Amino acid sequence: MIEIKLQKMDTPCWRNTLTALNKAKIFIVVLIGLLSIVPTEVVHAQQATWIWYPGDYSIWLGNKVQNRRTERGTFFPPFWKMDSHYVLVEFSHKYKLSAPDTIDIKVEGKYNVKLDGKLLFGSPEKIVIPAGLHSLNIKVYNQASVPALFVQGKAIQSDDSWKVTYEDKEWIDSSGKASDTSSGTVYVHAASWNFNSPDNLPSKFKLPTQPMPVVSVIHKNNGILYDFGKETFGYVKFHGLKGKGTLNVYYGESADEALSVDHCETLDRFHVKNAIAKDFTAPDSKAFRYVYVEKGNSLSYDSVSMQYEYLPLEYKGSFRCNDDQINKIWDVAAYTLHLTTREFFLDGIKRDRWMWSGDAYQSYLMNYYLFFNSPAVRRTTFALRGKDPVTSHINTIMDYTFYWFMGIYDYYQYTGDKKLIVQLYPRMKSLMDFCLSRRDSAGMMQGLAGDWVFIDWADFKMSKAGEVSFEQLLFCRSLETMATCAKLMDDSGSEKLYTKLAADLKTKLFTVFWSDKQNAFVHNRVKGVVSTQVTPYTNIFAVLFNYLNPEKREAVKENVLLNPDALKITTPYMQFYNLSALCSLGEQKYVLNQIRDYWGGMLKLGATSFWEKYNPKEKYPQLLSMYGRPFGKSLCHAWGASPIYLLGRYFLGVKPVKPGYQSYTVEPSLGGLQWMEGDVPTPNGKIHVYCSTKEIKVKSDTGTGTLRFRSLSTPVCKTATIKKIAGNQYELAINKDQEVVVKYKSVK
Amino acid sequence: MIEIKLQKMDTPCWRNTLTALNKAKIFIVVLIGLLSIVPTEVVHAQQATWIWYPGDYSIWLGNKVQNRRTERGTFFPPFWKMDSHYVLVEFSHKYKLSAPDTIDIKVEGKYNVKLDGKLLFGSPEKIVIPAGLHSLNIKVYNQASVPALFVQGKAIQSDDSWKVTYEDKEWIDSSGKASDTSSGTVYVHAASWNFNSPDNLPSKFKLPTQPMPVVSVIHKNNGILYDFGKETFGYVKFHGLKGKGTLNVYYGESADEALSVDHCETLDRFHVKNAIAKDFTAPDSKAFRYVYVEKGNSLSYDSVSMQYEYLPLEYKGSFRCNDDQINKIWDVAAYTLHLTTREFFLDGIKRDRWMWSGDAYQSYLMNYYLFFNSPAVRRTTFALRGKDPVTSHINTIMDYTFYWFMGIYDYYQYTGDKKLIVQLYPRMKSLMDFCLSRRDSAGMMQGLAGDWVFIDWADFKMSKAGEVSFEQLLFCRSLETMATCAKLMDDSGSEKLYTKLAADLKTKLFTVFWSDKQNAFVHNRVKGVVSTQVTPYTNIFAVLFNYLNPEKREAVKENVLLNPDALKITTPYMQFYNLSALCSLGEQKYVLNQIRDYWGGMLKLGATSFWEKYNPKEKYPQLLSMYGRPFGKSLCHAWGASPIYLLGRYFLGVKPVKPGYQSYTVEPSLGGLQWMEGDVPTPNGKIHVYCSTKEIKVKSDTGTGTLRFRSLSTPVCKTATIKKIAGNQYELAINKDQEVVVKYKSVK
């Protein structure tokens, strides 16, 4: 046999296969049917990794993480259905070996091994696979944690090219004849993360930690207040703890909170009985800047420090400009996003520490401009979705269901990785079925019993009743996303259906909710009565989704987005969309000032990470309160980090046009800055942009791009041809690895 | 406040509530809505018990039990989807207390406690509930085992009157306002078994054991063969085991099997290293009569015994007659059923040890005439069904899905306990939806990819292709069952639908499959071509379901059931239905001879429990083989125990007419015996029947019954009025606790 290079069975193979398949419902089965008869030819070792059923690890870890929330020392779990991994799965692979291969098998769970359909004795840890064509089936049962497999040989290793199923339907009849196992069983490709050694057990996963010192120590009231200098997350540690008694530890994102023993959001009470001095680290990690400690007199310790807990992340994106306040905002936003990017994209680190689909959706977008960490997006997307049957909206929130759909399409657009769509498409369809089953007679979605219509935390009175225009808009966008994904999956029947549903709903959106009188979308319709209230949400998103003709775009901009009398947004959450929409309307200058005011406002109040909500009119200590509790507000909230996205997407102006930056555009916009410079990460390297009022420089590691800009003088580039588009608008092509330098004169 | 007796919220209350409700889809929500506003008035302690979400414990324990199967030392798990418990649930109750109550709380899992909507600190183990109206909510998270709760106070205790949900949807908005938790959340009543003390943890459940000695010891080949005298189940134990080496233990239901070190179905290899002599018990229980042990020379032990493992069961049913062979058959059948009635009703104890819906269905019916153990039926029914989504038939077998439906209705009929239907109705509907979605254009079900059409193990050639008449018959019966249950649930829309579907299918059954030429049902139709083969199955069940008019009944009896040239049944499984049908046609005498031949035949071959399959033509050692393996056949199989059912149901002749034996009939039939006597259990005591050729005596602890019999002389009863029905047929009423004695002259 000729030795050829490892030919993996994943991406390229199934893409071609998929394209050729037209039958809607059976394509997965057929797909795998085709795959299973083509063994992988292997000759040399690749990286083996722990594998499992797609999504199962995220769901399992999500349960663990989200059930760590405490409220003042009491366990505080989520209020939606938590699903589980499949407890019994079968992994399989076919190999064509040019030489015998000795493989080591490590499994999380009880397992058996079949070689060429024959069960081996016991649960073997090492076996020899002879040369030639062979099939390997390993069945694993694990109730408590995810059934997982690690196989390492010279030629064979566990990776995403393995197949896995939760029901192999492999029965035998009384004569010993086996069932036709290729039929009726849905196999999918296994999933993995980065557990790349046999001893790195998925079930034992913990984020790494590193020691961090206290910055200041102040004796206050009956105890001591420790300041760690900035918002942080981890395990408080007492050095040389000795004696007997209760150690009361009060955590605070603010000093006020830590000192409020009756109202701080998180606390610990440790019952100590140490005859000799010992170091003691709190068993659960918490978010805090301040820790206030009160203790009995018969207890003593030498000092306090902490173990900072974090997800190791590479800062691939960057931003610098001539304005130090903006630079500072970018840095604090990046730190905020890092603190909230953990096992998953969490909302905030102090209180919920849950995955919220609306919050996560923004984290994904910011992530594409900072860490470009795709596994974190995948983990969060799977964990949010859970499993069938669908019994409520994601997080019980209608809008959050819609953001979930939109996030998957964005993922594909930014990463070019279609596998997530392939893995999730059945769950996308069943979630959309849930939505479709809840439409009213007008084909719109109203909040039914148990549905939370969230939209935003607003300081004005906002109705959530009836047909809310914002929800219909997101619903429409979700249907469009489904149509796009159906097309990618060659599910033409569904593509047609979703396309029609989206078009119908879009038409209704305008006929019902667009007010010619107010020249904007109104808020809702209750029992046939259309409200006259204009709220920002539908209008903002209609701009972002590019649903408006030029007249309506202009109207929305003037009447809502830039109208000083319009209803105000007070959360960084909605500011994200509001400012994005304004940027897409060319209002970078206005937006930059908003960033200075809003995020700069938080910095002026001493923020070391960005908040869940900020209303410049609120003063201490009122501004720390939320949910009816004096320190309810989270001071480190992922949705507070949106300048990361705004500056990368709309100032450096980089966005993918084809999936995974195969093609992209760069449209720098200074918004009044003198110069700016930064990197935008892609699946393959970075796109570097420098822009001043006189010069633009772009260098890209990937794809083919288009640079677009406006210039008051005729622009000059020595290495590329500049095309005039219209008026003062120009564009030129960017090729991989070739820096483009343009001399020009910026418009403002 | 006036002290009144504990008024539980379960059965009587919700029955009335249900009757009053007509809306199909929302009845559960509404029901619980109503319940939740009526607090239970409590004043004195009841039995507290561990509670959980209905079905979850069965599913969890089912996973554990069914993943214990081994084949020659290798783990051998099921091939269908295994579901999991809900990992996060909330238990709640409202109480109206006349005095403060101190309650102890014990939980399996991480938990919090809310009293009157307010979270208490930590995870309290003891709290005081003040007098008055109070609500208690306890939320529990447990990934590895079932979230379970035990609460014991003077007036308050955990029991099935508690409510439970897997998604409470209790969110709060930024102002602190809580969601309307009564809406959109489905609460159901908690479930329990018999874990009635706080230290009796559900997760630690194990069946009890007791020591049993070896009956004989024979040195054979290179080892020793131990005979335990009869089929048994448990843990083999080595006394005074010493030395170093491998202890090879080969189990056999026959001596041949145990001695076949290369082909016995189960074996253990223990690696021993005991410097001093120690007793050693095998960690896993096995089925065997014989144990053959081979060991290295440097190993020694004093003796071997076993720990018999069993479910404690009361033998409530009994049967004795003048024929000792029949008595022996009844005893061995009872022992067979006891061995297979364990955590669940298992198929057989040696090999699968799984729940198979078709096997379990028969076990249920036998159980009603022996143990009347309702919890075992409930556990098995829940475990078989698992959870949504439905991805395949139960056990992947089409017929087994149908038996599952039928078993639920039988359960209600025998026990009168409607709660199981209430708990399972949503899962019944979704399983039926799965079936309905798989009909062909004729509205019939064919085996699709991944479906196993089982019917029976037959020694003749039988097609499973196309529309199999037997499957349509069971499908029709399942639809009737759904209609009946829908009616019980006041779900009138579904009742109507299922009734119509059943009627349509029944009509088709006759037009398509009844052959006027053969005067019987034929086997199947493939691509429009109706087969000419007459197999026994459809014909047998049509008799049992009472689908035939008198002419067709007679035709089936003569052409199929009593026709010596008809295709033969070789499994006790189908004999169950075959002989039941013959009994219902009055052929008790024929059936008794069949029992003597068939079950008597196994006894003559030395059976100490009844087998999975028996063909009188097969001889040793061939008769031990099955599935292509020399010892594949199970020699202790639940479906072998059917004489228990036949003798109770058709000879003593006792059956319920209204649910739970509120009314019942007794139609004794000696079938040629001189006399017989026995007890048939009911939910409230027993019905005792004695019948000889001259005298019938019936005494019942429950309900109102009707005794029916035939007599060649005018029958006499001193205490009741005998009514002549027709010819030599008579009947009289049986009242609770009043023995009826009838002098008569039996027909044969």
From TrEMBL, chains A, B:
GO biological process: carbohydrate metabolic process
Domain Alpha-rhamnosidase-like N-terminal, residue spans: 89-293
A Pfam family assignment: Bac_rhamnosid-like_N
Domain Alpha-L-rhamnosidase six-hairpin glycosidase per the UniProt entry, residue ranges: 316-649
InterPro entries named among the record's database cross-references: 6-hairpin_glycosidase_sf (IPR008928), 6hp_glycosidase-like_sf (IPR012341), Bac_rhamnosid6H (IPR035396), Bac_rhamnosid_C (IPR035398), Rhamnosid-like_N_bacteroidetes (IPR048932)
Residue ranges constituting the Alpha-L-rhamnosidase C-terminal domain according to the UniProt record: 653-692
Name of the molecule in the record: Alpha-rhamnosidase
Organism: Prolixibacter bellariivorans
